[in-house]
Amino acid sequence: MAETVEFRSNGNGASGYLVKPPVGSGPGVLVIQEWWGLDAGIKEMTDRLGAAGFVALAPDLYHGELAGHDEMDKAAHLMQSLPPERAGRDMSGAVDYLSSHSAVTSDGIGVVGFCMGGMLSFIIAANRPDKVKAVVPFYGFPQGETEPDWSRLTASISGHMAEHDNFFSPAAAGALEAKLKGMGKNVTLTVHPGTGHAFMGPHNALGTLNAALAERIWPEVVLFLRENVR
């Protein structure tokens, strides 16, 4: 069952798309949007997590703003204009909302993020080690000044990156994986050969959808979350 919900965000208001599983309860998972906003593609991923047995929440980080899949300039503007502090507050508020929801059976929370959301999933994991136990980032990760305090990260991370990606390069993904492993973190960032950025996106906005790979990866995502979110 899907619904739009409202929750508190450090004294302010925020909203999101919540999906409960058919059985009515399950572990909590946060879904973080791409740069387009809370669009049909992100809602579809949230629906799929709900169908897999999770209570899934996709917070609307743009507060109602949305870019069409033929509006890359607008999407870039929305992403660049997103106040980092507000995004952090909204994600943290969403974590608290899920944690306290009566349908959520887990003490910890999982996070799945795509593109911009992949990058943000690392950040909320580092900021909320008390709750975030597992992260599945797709083709996105913090770089340079956007990197959080990694010493606080305790979640297990299983990331999926693209080989041909002008936004997040395989070399940078490998460097980050090595850095975090060197700090004793449980992190694997897999670069999938022959793929382009957004290879999981059902909208296929960049013409890079790899449907066969997406179907193969999805059971791995579900299994990873089930094993690590309790």
Q: Which features would summarize this protein structure in a list?
A:
230 residues; alpha/beta; Rossmann fold; 8-stranded mixed sheet; globular
Q: State the name of the first-level CATH class.
A: Alpha Beta
The end-to-end span amounts to 22 Å
What fraction, in percent, of the residue positions are helical?
A: 25-40%
> Biggest sheet, open or closed, and with what strands and sense?
8 strands, mixed
Name the CATH superfamily classification.
Alpha/Beta hydrolase fold, catalytic domain
On the 0-100 scale, what is the average pLDDT? 97
Order of helices and strands: EEEHEHHEHEEHEH
- How many domains, in number, for the residues? 1
Question: Number of helical runs?
Answer: 6
Strand content: 25-35%
Spatial sequence of strands, sheet with the most strands: 1-2-4-3-5-6-7-8
Corresponding CATH architecture: 3-Layer(aba) Sandwich
Query: Which structural category do the helix and sheet elements fall into?
Result: alpha/beta
What best-fitting shape do the alpha-carbon axes yield?
globular
Concise structural overview:
With 230 residues, the protein is α/β, with parallel strands linked by helices. 36% of the residues lie in helices and 28% in strands.
Structural description of this entry:
With 230 residues, the protein is of the alpha/beta class. The chain has a single domain (2-228), classed as 3-Layer(aba) Sandwich (Rossmann fold), CATH 3.40.50. The chain contains six helices and eight strands. The chain has helices spanning 40-51, 72-81, 84-100, 116-127, 170-182, 211-228, and strands spanning 2-9, 12-19, 26-32, 55-59, 104-114, 132-138, 156-164, 187-196. The protein has an eight-stranded mixed beta sheet, with helices on both faces. Helix 4 (116-127) links the parallel strand 5 (104-114) and strand 6 (132-138). The longest helix has 18 residues, at 211-228. The mean pLDDT is 97.
